[in-house]
Amino acid sequence: MSTSTQRNVADLTNWFLNAKRSLNSVTYCTRGNEIITTTRNSLIDASIMSSRASFLQSGIKDELKLLQTANSVMENQRELVRKDFQNSLGMLDEADQRLDETLTTLRRTEVEGAFSAVEGTGEEGQQRCLYDFVDEDGIENLKSQLKGVIDQVQETDEVFESHLDPFTVLIASITESLSSLSKKSAIPDLVIAIRPSLELMEEHASVMASLLESLAKHYDLCSLALKRAESHDGGISSQEGDPETEEDIANMLAVLEKDAGEVDDVVNEIKERLDEMEATGILVERTLQDIGDHYRAVLALLEKMHEGQSILMDCTIQSKDFVQKQNDNQRVIAERLDELQRLTDHYVLFGDAYDALLVEVGRRIAVQRQKDAIIQEALAQIDMLNERDLNEREQFRSEYGDFLPSDIWPGLSDPPGAYTVQRMDAWEIPEIKQGVIENAMTRRAAAISSGVRQF
Fold first, then answer.
1. What is the dihedral of CA 437, 439, 440, 445, to 10 degrees?
2. Signal sequence: where (predicted)?
């Protein structure tokens, strides 16, 4: 047995045992294949989710535009109704303020006591004003009706708001969620990002399989060498006179020795490649999780869209009811506003009519004074005629009385006839101070210049 070709059985045994242990790397390869299989299946699922999510997301965008348009239409309708209502409130406030100002004027306008004295209706110590003739119950009833319809308008608006606000909030939520999804990477991009990782895994798996195959060959060679060594007492040696066998054995031992030194490195490389696959698998898993989260978020949005469609149907019904009720309310408000304005006009004209009454009293006083002047003048002229007549009668009797018998005309000695002026009907004109009448005339002149209709 030569020492150059002889190998210690102990070395061969160590190589064999190490080679056998290295075959445990098959678990690494198995795990690598599992990772690849899982990744492939996940990629298929991701591709399916990608196509579905893209289709659904596109549909959600289109449907969202319809919901937004419908919401805008209903919001605009509500805003128009609100503006009309606010305009009506402004007109009501103006009319109510005008009525209050008119009633205040009536409260401040005292009825001349001379009117009550003439009619015999005056109560001692009680001063009347024009407001005493106002129908307070009628005014309060009209204002109560207005308050009722205003409350009805507000109640109708609140009912519609309770239906429209959730719809508006839901649309805002869907819009925000959709915007958030759009800012993230699209699912197709994530799917594309996985493919290089899968290709890298497949490359690692292929190399690992090759390395495992080389370990298996090394194990087979170690097993063969150990069997030959054990067939000789001292180790492995070539048979004398068989140079080919001697050379083959030497080459085999050289390969064994070289490979034995690389076994641990090969095992480590397989493990390192598996570690890289595991790390890549974790990244892929996270990406797949993102894809799944994105897909589930799209499904959640789809559920919200279904909810939005249901709410839209309800809001559409409520919108029609809202517009109809508010139109009815506006019509009632317009009618009550017209009543309020006509009532105010009535009391404005009532105040003006009272001033006209004062002016009329002044006119009648003036006429009566003219009549009295005419009567006094007529009576004075009659007195003058009577005095002249009396003188002429006396002169006649003085000249001819002695020659005329007394019974020729019994009325010859009668005095001139006396006259009196007597009123046919019992009537009196209230004694109104001239200053009061002049103030009334001034107010009427101001009313005429401002366009208020006069009696």
1. 130
2. none
Query: How far is it, in rounded angstroms, from Cα 268 to Cα 64?
Result: 56
Q: Does the residue 358 lie in any domain?
A: no
In whole angstroms, give the CA distance from residue 310 to residue 166.
12
| Whole-angstrom distance, CA of residue 93 vs CA of residue 150 | 12
Question: Along the 455 residues of the chain, how does pLDDT read in single tens digits?
Answer: 444 345 567 777 888 887 788 777 788 888 888 888 888 888 888 888 888 888 898 899 999 999 999 999 999 999 999 999 999 999 999 999 999 999 999 999 999 888 876 555 555 557 899 999 999 999 999 999 999 999 999 999 999 999 999 999 999 999 998 888 877 655 556 667 677 877 887 888 888 888 878 878 877 777 877 787 777 644 444 444 444 466 777 777 777 777 777 777 787 887 888 888 888 888 888 878 888 888 898 999 999 999 999 999 999 999 999 999 999 999 999 999 999 999 999 999 999 999 999 999 999 999 999 999 999 999 999 999 999 999 999 999 899 988 888 889 888 888 888 888 888 776 788 888 888 888 889 888 887 777 655 43
User: What total number of domains does the chain contain?
Assistant: 2
Pairwise CA distance, residues 332 & 344, whole Å:
18
Q: What distance in Å separates the CA atoms of residue 392 and residue 29, rounded to the nearest whole number?
A: 171
- The 10 Å Cβ neighbour count of residue 14 is 13
Domain of 228?
Answer: 9-349
Would 361 be classed as within a structural domain? Answer: no
The answer to whether position 362 is within a domain reads no
**Both 319 and 276 in a single domain?**
yes
Residue 91 lies in a domain: yes
pTM for the whole structure: 0.66
Tokens encoding 398? 């003085």
